[in-house]
């Protein structure tokens, strides 16, 4: 454990400009997470163009702090309106909203804020401890190891996505297909460009991300413009947990934090699944399972500790192997690439200051998040009642500006609008967007590694089943594909 590098990064963050970025990022994340219809992925995608001319360290501090703040801020709407500000807070609605409606909104918010803080700290400890050893192990990976790891990640993402395995696979394959237009890296010839010269450089990551997440959400919110939330009065009473509360909920909080961290490490799963698994586990081992769904303190703590823990957990595969642990991590990979930084096992050697900046930001942003939310939750809660008719046009304006600023061409704006429609239609068809975006990000890397491996072996693909790591990753991918089918068959057989 490199404490000297960590303290060096913390010292750099506490200089004026990086700390300003951290404060703004965390506060904006909380605010956006608290406004229904706006998500952390949307915020970070919109902020990406603003980081073009920043120092890479400052850009990373801003984006990672937004990530932490957005996941935490979602609990405000989940508790007060039964509308999760982020998908990660869905489970919080089950118990947070009933507790708020019973006259204890401060208590419900306080439990969620403290659980988020503890979950973030525990996950950060794992991030600090295991990332560097894992990156050293990953340096021993060759092209076939990376190719099969990426394929396993894609299958894993599809198998745990909302909806069926088939829909998850369709989404991932569509994302891979969309990444194909452009110049073939092996032959140098255009492919799938349909003689349209603007496609020779391929579809850019930024317009695709902004369209898929921001514009599709704007379209969805425009259709629900007339829905108004019920008001719930919030005060600071009960926001701070007592030592007795900590003792009573310590086991649940620690268990849920480790579950969230582990789920976060698994590539592409994200905070939503982490909170579901932790909530289910808490209910199964609780002495009062009948209270879950009616305002259970255990349920709020399990959901929020787990979903915040996935943030630091998801940074582990991003830093160590260059594999995004969530959709937002896929956007962070795009941010690093914009600054000519290649995520992966050599990142500690080539850009150690950036790595330690990310790790230090995850720690300080969690502490700042707790301070900001406990001191100003009653004021932040009022933001959820902002009229969407004012918010959405401003967000759309930033979408257009961000896409146009990439290359100063309207082509990127049209790409953004097209993917906004595509993202909206995919969600209407219950096809998850996560596998689509991560497929788009990972497919070029998978193709590059496969081609490199085949060139090294003169076209021989047998190392996939003769080397231990590729074979293990392939077997896991096959099991992940087969297991849902077998489980469904067994369930139908039992029902019959």
TrEMBL record:
InterPro entries: DUF112_TM. Residues 20-438 form the DUF112 domain. The keyword rRNA processing does not apply. The chain crosses the membrane at residues 20-48, 60-81, 108-128, 149-177, 197-219, 257-282, 354-373, 385-405, 411-426, 468-486. Pfam families: TctA (PF01970). Keywords: Membrane, Transmembrane, Transmembrane helix. This is DUF112 domain-containing protein. It comes from Halovulum marinum.
């Amino acid at each position: 454990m490199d404490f000297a590098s960590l303290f060096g990064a913390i010292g750099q963050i506490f200089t004026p400009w990086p700390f300003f970025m951290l404060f703004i990022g965390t506060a904006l994340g909380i605010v956006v997470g608290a406004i229904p219809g706006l998500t952390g992925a949307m915020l970070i995608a919109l902020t990406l163009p603003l980081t073009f001319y920043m120092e890479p360290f400052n850009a990373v501090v801003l984006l990672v702090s937004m990530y932490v703040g957005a996941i935490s801020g979602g609990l405000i709407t989940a508790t007060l309106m039964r509308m999760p500000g982020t998908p990660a807070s869905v489970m919080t609605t089950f118990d947070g909203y009933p507790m708020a409606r019973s006259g204890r909104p401060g208590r419900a918010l306080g439990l969620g804020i403290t659980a988020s803080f503890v979950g973030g700290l525990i996950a950060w400890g794992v991030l600090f401890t295991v990332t560097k050893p894992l990156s050293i192990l990953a340096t021993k990976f060759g092209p076939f190891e990376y190719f099969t790891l990426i394929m396993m990640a894609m299958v894993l993402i599809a198998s745990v996505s909302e909806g069926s395995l088939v829909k998850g696979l369709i989404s991932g394959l569509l994302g891979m297909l969309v990444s194909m237009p452009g110049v073939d890296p092996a032959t140098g010839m255009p492919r799938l460009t349909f003689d349209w010269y603007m496609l020779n450089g391929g579809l850019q990551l930024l317009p695709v991300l902004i369209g898929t997440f921001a514009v599709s959400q704007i379209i969805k919110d425009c259709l629900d413009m007339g829905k108004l939330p019920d008001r719930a009065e919030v005060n600071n009473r009960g926001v701070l947990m007592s030592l007795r509360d900590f003792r009573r909920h310590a086991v649940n909080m620690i268990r849920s934090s480790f579950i969230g961290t582990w789920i976060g490490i698994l590539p592409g799963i994200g905070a939503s699944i982490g909170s579901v698994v932790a909530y289910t586990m808490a209910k199964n081992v609780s002495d009062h399972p009948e209270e879950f769904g009616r305002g259970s303190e255990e349920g709020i703590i399990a959901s929020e500790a787990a979903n915040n823990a996935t943030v630091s957990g998801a940074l582990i595969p991003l830093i160590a192997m260059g594999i995004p642990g969530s959709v937002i991590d896929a956007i962070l990979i795009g941010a690093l690439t914009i600054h000519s930084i290649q995520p992966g096992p050599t990142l500690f050697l080539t850009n150690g200051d950036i790595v330690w900046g990310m790790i230090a930001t995850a720690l300080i942003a969690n502490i700042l998040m707790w301070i900001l939310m406990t001191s100003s939750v009653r004021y932040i809660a009022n933001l959820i009642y902002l009229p969407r008719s004012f918010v959405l046009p401003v967000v759309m304006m930033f979408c257009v500006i961000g896409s146009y600023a990439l290359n100063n061409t309207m082509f990127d704006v049209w790409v953004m609008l097209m993917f906004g429609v595509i993202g909206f239609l995919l969600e209407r068809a219950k096809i998850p967007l996560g596998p689509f975006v991560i497929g788009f990000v990972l497919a070029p890397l998978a193709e590059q590694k496969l081609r490199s491996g085949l060139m090294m072996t003169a076209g021989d693909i047998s190392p996939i089943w003769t080397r231990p790591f590729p074979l293990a990753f392939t077997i896991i991918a096959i099991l992940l594909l087969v297991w849902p089918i077998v489980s469904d068959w067994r369930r139908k057989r039992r029902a019959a």
